[in-house]
């Protein structure tokens, strides 16, 4: 297990401990909320981004936070990214009060990429076990596309966007739409450290490249392999480990995906979920880019003190712009 010197120094001098999200559902939620609350003062205030926000609710009752670049032309339609947040499908949420770091990412991308970013307030497990989150996000994506006129969105430039398990959802939503003959609704995918395969159900074809869980099973910061399985047990994913919409690496239709940008962290149990996805994108000749942050743990970019955090955010913006340019 190789840990970057920057992270080790930060962990020792700033955090004073090795953070890890694990435990009961309540403990995971409390830790996630505490991290969000502690980091919020270190970010620009939401109002300091050149972004306007408003809420909408889909016909199915799913709430959406829509962030629009403030200085965007009022006459030209804007591209749209429909975002599924992290939190293991049991924690986090939409807006700065629930997840300051995901909200920061969305506002930053909206401002810098000049794109409308829509955050989906989907249901959580274990109260609503997976695939409820995929169902909510697919429904929300369709509503956003059909109602793009309400927020000046360009229906020809919609992307599926997400982080961690939300990154897996970005793939799942796209695949569900493709299976419903609605693939034209998705111009591309942007997925940050996507969680897209259960470690207890890895097809033989992928086993030689799927090593991250073994390397990070215990002791990795933020999320190790063991704690990732804890989240899958909480959200219902372990019971759905063969479901290709819950774990899109298993889907037989990967050959039909649109252009895709992926980022992975070297010290992350889900690193090789991204590796497997890129392997398939390459195999099927689908345009793709992948940025890798060696020695960095899952979701490291939430800490603004890290130099790689700034680079990560900038690279996501470039990834969004690249997908939209094709």
Automatic annotation (TrEMBL):
Coiled coil: none annotated. It holds the Pfam family Abhydrolase_3. Signal peptide: none annotated. The keyword Hydrolase applies. InterPro entries: AB_hydrolase_3, AB_hydrolase_fold, GDXG_lipolytic_enzyme. Keywords: Hydrolase. Residues 82-301 form the Alpha/beta hydrolase fold-3 domain. This is Alpha/beta hydrolase fold-3 domain-containing protein. The lineage of its organism: Eukaryota, Fungi, Dikarya, Ascomycota, Pezizomycotina.
